[in-house]
Design a protein that fits this description.
By secondary structure, the protein is α/β, with parallel strands linked by helices. It is built from twelve helices and nine strands.
Length: 343
């Protein structure tokens, strides 16, 4: 029976890749259209942690959320619409977007501050106008087996992503380099308002939008503009190692949780953060053994480049009669991973 399930999952992945990659980024109306995704967990309301004060935003209750880091970068070029389509089609709870700002003030989804690694171009994203950026090939460095399918795929703007998916997916958005690009927060909030995505949940109670940043100043700016949005404070290993209880209490005033490099996180630290009412999301886990380990530790979310592998683990645990970890509902049929008509 397990072999049949694995075959169905693999077959569905193949179908999703074929659909998402058609005609070098000319996209179909599938993968949920403008409807809701089936994956998700119950979203929680604000609650008091150890300090007795409410946390800064709604906290995501029981479950392990699957976060498609840069989309599905082993199947299609990272941070491109085909990559997001594949992740959404497989059933990821969230597609992750890394936002940079162009010279003419447009928010685009690309991880690096510079364009070289993914496009073969030169210079910083902020030195390009959108028109100039669109001349670059976002599939330049993609080494996957479907490489030819993604020749000349483009770096998407935030608006293009939201226009493609609407409220059919959930978005986990990082504000990158906000100190170098004043006004990013307002531009992001204005765009989310335009697409009516603020303060919404999917039909399973999962927030439609989570915003993350390494910059507390940036997150506090978002909080002032839109109180109550789920905000995640990112830490690197060095900064997390020096995180004091007083700093955690200050973090509670604006954030719902933390995003941490998994290698720096122990079960004891996860329990400590949970005692303050904070969610713990870890990045970036790309092997099954470590995924299993951190699910057992009690993390609330996992970023991965291998979203198919994480979903397979969660799916198998969901169907295990002895499973005691906190796993949300996953699709029970192979066709729920794939493309379906618009609602």
């Amino acid at each position: 029976m397990g072999n049949i399930k694995n075959f169905l999952l693999s077959f569905t992945i193949l179908l999703t890749i074929i659909s998402a990659g058609c005609q070098n980024g000319v996209h179909s109306e599938g993968i949920g259209g403008k409807g809701e995704t089936n994956s998700g967990i119950k979203g929680g309301s604000e609650y008091a942690g150890e300090s007795g004060k409410e946390t800064g935003g709604p906290t995501i209750e029981t479950g392990v959320i699957s976060i498609a880091h840069r989309g599905a970068p082993f199947f299609a070029p990272e941070h491109t619409i085909p990559s997001y389509e594949i992740a959404a089609g497989l059933g990821a709870d969230y597609i992750e977007l890394d936002l940079q700002m162009t010279k003419d003030g447009v928010l685009v989804s690309i991880h690096d501050k510079t364009v070289g690694r993914t496009t073969g171009g030169q210079g910083e994203v902020a030195s390009y106008t959108l028109k100039e950026l669109k001349r670059l090939d976002a599939g330049h460095s993609f080494a996957g087996r479907e490489r030819k399918r993604y020749v000349h795929v483009k770096i998407p703007t935030l608006e293009e992503v939201l226009d493609r998916f609407g409220d059919s997916v959930n978005y986990y958005i990082e504000i990158k380099n906000p100190a170098d690009n004043p006004g990013m927060e307002k531009a992001l909030i204005d765009t989310l308002k335009k697409f009516q995505l603020l303060h919404k949940k999917d039909k399973n109670g999962l927030p439609k939008v989570i915003i993350q940043s390494f910059s507390p100043k940036s997150l506090k700016s978002v909080q002032r503009m839109e109180p109550g949005l789920p905000l995640i404070r990112l830490f690197n290993e060095k900064d997390f190692a020096s995180l004091t209880d007083d700093a955690i209490k200050e973090l509670q005033t604006y954030a719902s949780g933390v995003g941490l490099p998994f290698r720096s996180v122990t079960k004891k630290e996860i329990d400590r953060l949970h005692s303050y009412g904070l969610d713990v999301h870890v990045y970036t886990i790309n092997d099954k053994k470590t995924m299993e380990q951190y699910i057992d530790y009690g993390v609330d979310g996992i970023f991965t480049d291998h979203i198919d592998q994480l979903l397979e683990i969660l799916h198998m645990r969901q169907n295990s009669p002895n499973e005691k970890s906190r796993i949300h509902r996953l699709p029970q049929k192979s066709d729920e991973f794939g493309i379906r008509p618009s609602d």
